[in-house]
Amino acid sequence: MGKIFDNNAELSEWLDSNYWFEDGFMLNYTFDQKSNSISMLLAYQIDGTYEANTQRTLKVFSVKALAVINCTSLEEDEWSADHCMEGVNVTASDVVSFALYCPKFIEIECSRVIVNEEPNRVEVVKPWLSGTELFISVHGANLPSPGDWLSWFKTFGHDLGWRCYGGDLTDTAKVPQRSYDGWFLQETSQMSQTTQGLFFKHCSQSGNTFRVSFQRTELRDPVWQSLKEIVLRYKDIEISSGNCKFNNEQWAIKLDEKE
Questions:
Q1: What's the Cα-to-Cα distance from 247 to each of 99, 129, 233, 250, 254, rounded to whole Å?
Q2: How far is CA 238 from the centre of its chain?
Q3: What is the pTM of this model?
Q4: 185 and 98 co-located in one domain
């Protein structure tokens, strides 16, 4: 028989002992209308890394909510076992109540929760690519100037300009030439309609290696796609997206696969 929780205080204590499932996963979810119960598998990583195609170990628990009083509807396509949760939180209620993102936000109120610890799960980390962030590390080259980026995007047919957050178009000569962290590139035609763009989150030069972290907000897909191709101008490069890393040749192959 597993652990039984019929109040939020005891459930909170158990969640706290399991790190509130921060960066955890919901591996399975089932609502049984006949018994008015919800069964799920919750897990968090206890060994390994998050890097693609490496081995990791998950600590797994079966969690069953009995006599469900209220719950957020959850369709099959609204949750993913691969989604990394921010955690499980207890919500204010006179009954047992908890909530999580899977990635849809769901909240469950019930009379009792039964938890059983399951065997650890050893698996290979699935690769995934980010649609909003990109990081490059380039060896044997200097950090490009703000003007370089404008020229390269121009060859792809994009008329871009530099700006601060929420700001207007800024003369390229006034942009810090070797420390443009925190600045944005945006299409000149989109300046008045947006506050951000292609964010240069971090830029640095160390010896003969430079690194840049990009993040997109309010940036059209064609510009983001062009950035992915622009970085291929560097041969000795490591490109990171999501939990994957690529060299020049591998990245070129990945871009061809997406087309």
A1: 40, 15, 12, 5, 10
A2: 19
A3: 0.81
A4: no
Both 62 and 42 in one domain: the answer is: yes
- Listed residue (82, 87, 63, 85) closest to 124, CA to CA: 82
Determine the average pLDDT of the residues in 130-134.
Answer: 96
Return the SS3 of 206: strand
Question: Containing domain of residue 49, as a range?
Answer: 3-124
- In the numeric block, the tokens 């490069």 are attached to 237
Contact 200, 183 (CB under 8 A): yes
The domain total for the chain is 2
Q: How confident is the model at residue 92 (pLDDT cuts 50, 70, 90)?
A: confident
Q: Are 130 and 215 in contact (CB under 8 A)?
A: no
- The span from the CA of 20 to the CA of 2, in Å, is 18
Map residue 10 onto helix, strand or coil.
helix
Q: Is the peptide bond prior to 103 cis by the omega test (within 30 degrees of 0)?
A: yes
pLDDT tens-digit profile of 158-171? 999 999 999 999 99
The answer on 222 and 165 residing in a single domain is yes
Residue 13 in tokens: 């204590």
Distances (CA, A) of 235 to 41, 147, 214, 250: 44, 21, 19, 11
Distance between CA atoms of residues 224 and 255, nearest Å: 12
Instruction: Report pLDDT digits (tens) over 17-72.
Output: 999 999 999 999 999 999 999 999 999 999 999 999 999 999 999 999 999 999 99
Cα distance between residue 33 and residue 194, in whole Å:
46
Alpha helices in the chain (DSSP H): 8-17, 146-155, 221-230, 248-258
